Amino acid sequence: NAGVMQNPRHLVRRRGQEARLRCSPMKGHSHVYWYRQLPEEGLKFMVYLQKENIIDESGMPKERFSAEFPKEGPSILRIQQVVRGDSAAYFCASSPLDSGNTIYFGEGSWLTVV
Amino acid sequence: AQSVTQLGSHVSVSEGALVLLRCNYSSSVPPYLFWYVQYPNQGLQLLLKYTSAATLVKGINGFEAEFKKSETSFHLTKPSAHMSDAAEYFCAVNVAGNQFYFGTGTSLTVIP
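Output (structure tokens, whole complex):
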């Protein structure tokens, strides 16, 4: 029973390039969350999605960031025109449908912008 | 609005001493509460969760937490710290609609 799978684990991008981070939820989970963790900081909520639907994107920066969770395939967090400040660990989590269920985290994707 | 406050961003204890990590929550309705642990360069792992079945919740690795409604607290404890407990610990609350809110984390250092 595979857990939440994130790839790539490590990604290096030059300023101005695009970064795409992928997340496959646990089997049977219909909800995906993206969080960002900056060095020495806590976990910041970014976006919460169901299949083909963004439920809450209140934590997403207004520009350059987007997320999707298509009917088929993994959820994608896309960062356009990356800047040094985007360097962080990006964690995906998934949960089943009902409220109160645990969310399960992936191992994270570490983005470094050089 | 729901929120979680973790008092003390850094806690140090001696090996074998009691571990106490504090978490207070704000919620207008009975919440579900969680503690997660994060080891360096890894994702978050669930330690334990409270879902209203019992106020004292036992988790993995000898950790437990007690839900106190009157104090709106869900502090994490372990009677005797082990070197392998050194990690970052996050408290989280889930109220409704699958929205989860995390505290800012507490870094636990265990001194030999």
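The two ends of chain B are 41 Å apart (CA to CA).
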